[in-house]
From TrEMBL:
Pfam families listed in its UniProt record: Cytochrom_C
The entry's keywords: Heme, Iron, Metal-binding
Domain Cytochrome c span(s) in chain numbering: 49-153
Protein name as catalogued: Sulfur oxidation c-type cytochrome SoxX
GO MF entries: electron transfer activity; heme binding; metal ion binding
Gene: soxX
Domain of life: Bacteria
InterPro entries xref list: Cyt_c-like_dom, Cyt_c-like_dom_sf, Thiosulf_SoxX
Amino acid sequence: MRRALAGAALALSGVAGDALRADAREGTEPVPYVVTDDGIREKLGGQRGDPAMGQALIAERHRSLCILCHAVPGGAMQLQGTLAPSLAGVGARLNEAQIRLRIVDMKRLNPESIMPSYHARATGARIAPAWQDKPVLGAAEIEHLVAYLLTLKE
C-alpha cells in the first residue's frame, strides 16, 4: 500500500513538473521596455491585457505566485499571503505604468524587495534548469496581470 501511494505521488509530481517545464518554454522571451519616472508607460509588446486572464493567473500558484505573498480581495482564493501589502485598492493607488513596473522589475524601485522581477532573465545557482535564462512571465501574462490589478479600485 505504501509503495503504491509513493509511486502515485512520484508519478503526479512528474506530471506537474513536466507541465511547469512546458510552461517555462512557452512565449517567455523578455521584450524591451522603457522606464519613465516610476513606471513603464507602454504595454509590453504592444499587447492589451485581459482582466479575466489576469485574475486566473494571480490565483495560479505555479506561475505568478502572487498569492504566496499578497492577499487579493474577494477571498475566493485559498491560502493568501500576508508577507506583502494586500492588493485591495491597488488600481486606485497606482496607475497602469506604475503597476507594470512593479511586476516587471520591482527591484528597480526597491533593491531590498523580496518580490522577484517577473520579466527579467532568471539566472543563478538556485534557479531550476527549466527556468535558467528565462523570465518567469511573458509579456502577455504581465499585461493580463496589469489589466486585472487596475480593476481593483476598492
